[in-house]
Every structure is written in structure tokens, then in C-alpha cells.
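Journal club prep — side note

Before the paper discussion, L.F. wants everyone to see what a predicted structure for a comparable chain looks like in C-alpha cell form. Sequence:
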Amino acid sequence: QVQLVESGGGLVQAGGSLRLSCAASGGTFSTYAMGWFRQAPGKEREFVAAISRNAISSNYADSVKGRFTISRDNAKNTLYLQMNTLKPGDTAVYYCAAKPWSSTSSTSSEPKRYDYWGQGTQVTVSS
């Protein structure tokens, strides 16, 4: 069973950048497809980005496409989310999630398909 710990959140002005990290332990990181999700106050958790086990495939929510980049380093057991040109609408708690998957190139944008979740890190974008 994998444990996930996010870091890198904080307060940033609109137009700024942040890089989130998600450190995995207790499992074989390369056997998990990974995703980033976020939840703003009063809203449901929503998909942000996902990446396959071998990092060949990735996909993004339309709202972040062209601004956010998901990546992973399997040697370091770490998932990343580079967030550029941040907007106040990006304010949320960001969660990383892991899904054990035999496919090396598949991703999923559905939260219910992920088995393991981190505790979240707060991102606040001021206008």
C-alpha cells in the first residue's frame, strides 16, 4: 500500500507559479498511474491532470491545459505538478492520487478509479 504526501502549496499572486510535489512511499511507485485533483470550498473534487506509469501518456483538464504540467520521477518516487500563470480560480486544496494499473500507458481522470490519496496541500492565488 502506497502512502502519498503532497508539498509545495502556498500563497501566490495571480500570474505566478508554484510547483507541487507528491512523495510516495510504501509501494512500488512505477506500478501506479498518478493523478492530481483539486477541491475548492463548496465544490466537488475535480480532475486536474494525470500521468501514466511510464510517463508516456498524460492528460489535463481544459481549465489548466497549457498552464500546468504533470511529470514524475520514478527513480525518486515523486510526482510533480508545475503550475504557471496561476489564476484566482485555481485556488483549492490539491491532492495527488495513485492507481495500481497493469497498463503502463493508461491514465484516468475519474477520482473514483484511484485507490490511494494524499492529505492535500493548499494553493491560494490572490488577485
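L.F.'s comment for the group: The mean pLDDT is 97. Keep this in mind when we get to the figures.
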